[in-house]
Amino acid sequence: MFSAAARDAAVARHMHLFPSRLIGPLRFLNPVALAKASAVDLKHRRTAPPTAHPAPRPWTVER
To answer: Where is this region: Disordered (predicted)?
Structure first.
């Protein structure tokens, strides 16, 4: 939910309602809201560029 709220305004509004105590936990975690958040995260995962992993550092510890 948190990562989806950072990427989508509708999920962010829904996220805002819960800590503001305008909706309860059952409405916050309803299947429609969770599906929307999952869809936003999956869409981001598909469009995100692959992360480049840095080259491993050689260990040059001498004793």
So the answer is: 41-63
Of 47 and 63, the one with more pLDDT? 47
The two tokens of residue 4 are: 């989806």
Instruction: Choose among 36, 43, 48: nearest CA to 28.
Output: 36
Domain ranges of the chain: 2-47
Contact 2, 11 (CB under 8 A): no
Only one residue has tokens 């409405």, namely: 27
This model's pTM is above 0.90: no
3-state secondary structure of 35: helix
